[in-house]
Amino acid sequence: MRRRQFLQNIGATALGFSFLQSSKAGQLSANAAAIGRVVVVGGGMAGTTVAKFLRLWGGTGVDVTLVEPNSTYYSNIFSNMVLTGERTLSQLAFNYSTLNSKYGVKVQNHSVNSIDPVGKKVTLSNGGILPYDRLVLAPGIDFEPLPSLSGTTANQAKIVHAWKAGTQTTSLQNQIKAMTSKDTFILTIPPAPYRCPPGPYERACVVADYLKRTKGGGKVVILDANAGILAEPQNFTTAFNITHKGIITYVPNAPIASINADTMMVKTSGGVSYTGKVINAIPTHKAGNLITQSGIGLANGLNGKWAGVNVLSYESTNPDLAGIHVIGDSSSTTQPKAGHIANAEAKVCADAIIQIFKGGVINQSPITNSSCFTPITKTTASWLSVVYRYDPATGKMAPTGNGVTESNGATSENYEDMLKWFNNLMADTFS
Ligand SMILES: Cc1cc2nc3c(=O)[nH]c(=O)nc-3n(C[C@H](O)[C@H](O)[C@H](O)COP(=O)(O)OP(=O)(O)OC[C@H]3O[C@@H](n4cnc5c(N)ncnc54)[C@H](O)[C@@H]3O)c2cc1C
Q1: Which residue among 82, 123, 201, 329 is best mutated to probe the pocket of ligand 1, counting the most ligand atoms within 8 A of its Cβ?
Q2: pLDDT tens for each residue of 165-179
Q3: Which residues make Cβ contacts (< 8 Å) with residue 34, sequence separation at least 6?
Q4: pLDDT beneath 70, residues of the chain
Q5: One CATH from 3.40.50.2300, 3.30.420.100, 3.40.50.150, 3.50.50.60 for 145-283
Q6: What CATH architecture is 2-142+286-430?
Q7: Is 111 in the pocket of ligand 1 (CB under 6 A)?
Q8: Are 79 and 169 in contact (CB under 8 A)?
Q9: Residue 232's CB: how many other CB atoms inside 10 A?
Q10: Predicted model pTM
């Protein structure tokens, strides 16, 4: 029953186009009615999707330039499995060649340094200037500094988050590989909102599984700044208390006060100290620096750290920033910060911009879906899924039905579904 619910949820994605279908969508059309220039900033899950679908749905009259400093994107999704050797980083590498060759998106491998919302142009790190009619920002997340991090520079460098896949993922993988059955892995979870609510619990599970399988034991201590498990509470409670019993210790309400990288000691704000061989500290999140440091009033959402948006179009709620849209993890909405929903938000945004260019009407009842699979062991996975619908009374996306559905435990069938889900999502985004 729950699996059927999951498949129904996936089929209910933005605008009724599930990504399973939309990846097979037709050829680029010449849609004479939609004409305009869009600059998209950030080639991650949100930015790449919006660039692709602006062209796919808008046709050749919509001129799209994607600005992204890196020529390769490493998926965060599945990056926990790199830590345990079940995936390599190169298996999680994606590029923008299809976006250009198949959809005609122009790609500039630079960063955007500044935005001129009045002159409607952005300045790139190479000094280039790109004018726009509509600007879509999708720069993901950045971090607050860790509180009271002390120790030598070399030791401090070992305290990584690995919450943006790349070199830190490899560093953490090597640290885990060097652990023995006597060692402890400490994982600190920041206060919400952070990207991928189940992600840290998933990491604890796959590391525990790895230690058990390859080292004959070890300990994983989760210090969670939040009051309890924020995603799949039933599945993770089972995973911590039964599947990985004796290895995982879960400590809620444990924000960190300090980390000493020389003694490898973490102190919580409650005054309790934990010592580990490896400290994987995930700092407090905020929107990508482009949002918080733009100086033009983009960070007008939650605590001034995120971009407030109108979820019918993802246009900024700052009235001075008409024509600037923010999607993905940087935006502040009722939806989670996750790749699957970033893909759905991007489609809502693309459709809205095309309607604006055509002088049409923006869809007033968008639907989005968030689905997340979680490996619990090397062969089993669980999942969560939720469908959101626009609520005109609040102007927010509200969960439908019973809200978040979680799978009935972790199974090998879910694990197989997880592999298919990942391939479909990434193909829908990058192919
Ligand atoms: C361990 C882990 C597991 C996860 N698992 C899942 C999962 O199972 N399911 C799921 O749905 N989500 C998952 N996520 C979350 C998912 O990866 C993110 O939510 C998603 O990547 C957000 O997409 P985004 O486009 O907002 O940001 P990103 O994908 O991070 O992309 C941001 C891009 O913007 C670029 N950029 C930043 N600043 C600039 C600038 N000034 N100029 C130009 N470009 C810029 C960056 O280089 C980057 O490529 C996971 C995350 C982690 C860390």
Answers
A1: 329
A2: 999 999 999 999 999
A3: 58, 59, 61, 62, 354, 357, 358
A4: 1-8, 10-27, 29-32
A5: 3.50.50.60
A6: 3-Layer(bba) Sandwich (3.50)
A7: yes
A8: yes
A9: 25
A10: 0.95
